[in-house]
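Hi Q.,

Before the meeting this afternoon, I wanted you to have the zinc ion prediction in hand. No need to reply - just skim if you have a minute. The sequence and ligand are here:
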Amino acid sequence: MTDFEQKLEKYAELAVKIGVNVQKGQTLVVNAPVVAVDFVRKVTRIAYEAGAKNVYHRWTDNLLTLTKFQLAPDEALQEFPKWEADGLEQLAKEGAAFLDITTPQLDLLKDIDPERIALSNKTVSQALHTYRNYRMADKVSWSILAYPTEEWAKKVFPETEGQEALEKLWEQVFKLTRIDREDPVAAWKEHQRNLSEKVRYLNEKKYKKLHYRAPGTDLTIEFPDGYIWAGGASKNEAGADFFANIPTEEVFTLPLKTGVNGTVKSTKPLNYGGKLIEGLSFVFKDGKIVDFSAEQGYDTVKKLLDTDEGSRYLGEVALVPYNSPISESGLIFFNTLFDENASCHLAIGAAYPTCLEGGEKLTREELEARGVNSSLTHVDFMIGSPELEIDGETRSGEREPVFRNGVWAF
Ligand code: ZN
Ligand code: ZN
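Predicted structure with the ligand bound:
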């Protein structure tokens, strides 16, 4: 086996054993692009060796997606096969694990009308609402990891030629997912312990509010009663650990829907459904986005905010030190999986119900009543920088440093 093959094998092992953490007798669903077939074969073999009962594959292809957006009539974008949605729901209900392998392609839909993209996103979100809830509430194990392609590599390394750029990107992906370590699985367990310490500290403090200050940012975020910080591994309904994102460096929770006030400016570009959004700034009043601007992608943001009522409120508050390995790489990956882990971020739209005590058992209405946002959408945007300062406000109104110069202050 070449060095690359060995690393790819370890990456597949990480996906199966740490990512979804497949259990004996469990079904695994792999959502994957056709270009990743060699990797998917490894994943599938390792999953069966680990005791998986059945491994199902749902294949995708970026160019097929593009062709559909170019040529299919609008009605097609309003339709999602019921059998497919029902099938996913059934598998989730039966406790299957879900592994998503993504191949980010930044400019894929750049010439497509945002209206058509929004329509399609909405259709898919509605059809897969129940299935996605199983994932959002961590009832089932799920994990997302990236598979580099030349198109993506050329974005990250614009100065480098095709194949060489791809090799450089793989090297980064292997490094940032700890595949270059002697024992990646053990390295991930140690990483988990470090994240747990931050989570424990924040959950003991239970700050009433966080205050953010940075160039273009002056924001206060309040939290609802019973909110919980989480990070690293999650637990599914059956009690098995899994990592929803590989890599992951974040510690996160949910905000009080109506408790966000002030202005916040994004610090990294955001790729949303194939469109690039840059220089994003939001103004919040009592949780609602009442004004916004964007240097690039204004129309895309507008469409996103018009998805539903909840897409004008925040659903996630995440802390990532500016000296995280991804940030230290100095690269912009134009992919949320990597970029959000380089940076403190917020998300517009749905909150993770698991970030509220007993939240996973509550209905949407009950969650709303407790100040938790819900929406068909969930889009992260990055706000971290070396200038970012965050204070925690205690129940008695004192302020303590949480972040200084973009890194943990404790
Ligand atoms: Zn996040
Ligand atoms: Zn998020």
